[in-house]
Amino acid sequence: MRPDRRMMSGRAILTKAVVHVEDLRADPEYAQQVGRAGGFRAVLAVPMLREGRPIGAIVVIRAEPGPFSANHIELLETFADQAVIAVENVRLFKELTRSVAELRALGEVGQAVSSSLDIQSVLTSIVTHAVDLSQADAGTIYEFDEGAQVFVPRANYGIAPEMIEALRQSHIRLGETVVGQAGSKRVAVQIPDLESASGYPLPFVLKAGFRALLAVPLLTESHVVGALVVRRKVAGTFPQPVVDLLQAFATQSVIAIQNARLFREIDEKSRALEELSRNQEQLSRLSTALQEPLSLTEQLRRVLDAARQVVGLDHLYIWTPSAGGDGLMVSAGAGLTESDYRPLLGVSIPFAEAGALAAVYEDGEPRVFDETHPVPERYRLRPPYSEIAALRLKAFLVSPMIARGHTVGVLSADNRLTRAPIAAHTVELLHSFAAQAAVAVENARLFQEIQDKSQQLELASRHKSQFLANMSHELRTPMNAVLGYTDLILDGIFGDVPEAIRDTLERVKGNGHHLLGLINDVLDLSRIEAGQLTLSLGDYAMGEVVHAVASAVESLAAGKKLALKAIVPIDLPPGRGDERRLTQVLMNLVGNAIKFTDVGQVSIEARVADGSFLVAVSDTGPGVSEADRQRIFEEFQQVDSSSTRKKGGSGLGLAISKRLVELHGGRLWVESTLGQGSIFYFTVPLRVERPAESA
Amino acid sequence: MSKRILAIEDHEENRRILRLLLQSAGFEMIEALTGEDGVAMAEKERPDLILMDIQLPGLDGYEATRRIKANPDLRHIPIIVVTSYALSGDDVKAFEAGCDAYVTKPFVPRELLAKIRGYLG
Q1: DSSP-based three-state secondary structure for A638
Q2: DSSP structure class, residue A352
Q3: B91/A536 Cβ within 8 A
Q4: Nearest by CB: A487 against B88, B92, B108
């Protein structure tokens, strides 16, 4: 009901003054109806004012005309004041209940974010609390998949599995639905009533009974990480406090997602580095740094802004150890003016002089000081730092920032401007923000660590590739001379060679070629790793490749009494690719098959399948166990090291072959039954016009 | 008069092997250790055939081949490129530079001789 001057209560509210009418019939403004109906004549209306603003009115009426006494008026004014207090108490109580609930939720979520690496449970906890506190019915946290450019639902609350599946199938892109719009506009977006919103692309949402939607984006400085959406079954606009609250949850989600990504990444990198140092030969194929650097200052600023919004303190600071590790520096602040901040910029306060800040950093216990708990001498800042205006405080609180059990800094806050007391629940609330800030600091440290590790990896990998390339060249030169001289003697340049010497020289030559083959394998692999191996594309006939390999290994197979078959249809289409490299691949596969097969046969078959050549090399050897089927394509791996000794070989052949096939845009794999034999397959496109991106 | 072959090769052992091989086949061999010297010697001595290493200090075998083939007085001299383990694309680069034939190390002496005789026969 709007206040109306024709009503006594309305007049009291609008004028904010006592309205005293001795006879209604004499009042020109009064709209008679009420008076006639009730038959009363005199009215007294007292407004209920809270801090000067009307929140209601108390009205008393009398059937007889005539004035109310001064006592009556005063009494009614007292009633009005008490009523104001009662109403205010109810409102405060509601607000307190609400902020306690928010505090508890933020606290729980913050705890989950800082302690759990299980992204799923963290996001589920966030979405559950977000839905509860925004008095919505359902919610979803989407993660934005940079590669596919779609929002993928990661955590849901209050919706049926079919709808989760439908959301997953919707492949929401930037700009689409509230989710995509929140992402592309980088602001909260809502639809107060789906029924009247035309063209909403997800009809199943309305069908499930949802009427109002609110989405807030999950943002880092430069990227959209995802979106948080809540859905309500009752139409209507979500009020600003709910939007603010949801944004606080969005910040938490970003931290949780980044945290999980970072941890995943660092874990992988650490393992890769270990691997590399354990096995120097293993060449690394790791990508470089993370896609997106996290700005620590930006993250801290967000946490502090969120904290300031929720707890209403004047100034908040985050202190972290200086680079030298001998003091604390301000890394971020909220509510600070330029003149507050300037004296703090780049200043590291040594631990011995940092008073309460250092104490909290060292023992991890939060501390609060105010009128009743003044700062003890030992917790005071020492000069000259005690002279910095922003830090000359009688009442302030300091909370430790703890991430994964380590204190990484402290959060301090004060009400220097308003001099308002710091409420007890504020301390607890700030504790949860300190935990978030700690995660951000920890993330930045992890990020730095990742970058360092990436650089080390890259450097190690580059050094190794270069070393291998140089070494293999250096090894090859004298080997060529050894083989050259051997050939000269065998060719009779120095005269006839007796049979016994000839036989021995042939062995020197055979071993020399074998060694050269190993060196060439190492060179090939290091070139592939360094991205220096390019295909020499030309026209070739796959049939000729197969026959060339078959005739080259004929004597090898015959020596082991193995049957060797080559099956090639005569109508194979002409191919385009690197003939020499494809021959090398097939030679490697057939060579292996003969090497590892003692009884039976080895066969090579080539045909066309799905627009590619499909080449199969099958043997009746021992077979490859399932566990080994991946491993044998890695560098320096044979099924077991004893077979390396027995069978020879660098263990690089399959790794090289796989890469060479992949450079052609094809695939190499093995199928095998233990004890019965193996079939190695590879495919290459019929016509390769350009090499595939680095394998 | 025996045919003269210029070997442009920086590695001493390889030169020695070539020398032993060519002399045994009745050829005369003259030698250059760098690409620059090789080009200069080709201009001065006008050999009947050139064996060109690729990995040479300074001017590499591709460039030396290009320079010799760019000289109208020398263009007719056959150049056989002899290189270490061939990487894909090396042969293409060698032919683009203008060489006449291509042999990879370790070469089989008899096969190299057969190739040389193919040009000088």
Answers
A1: coil
A2: G
A3: yes
A4: B108
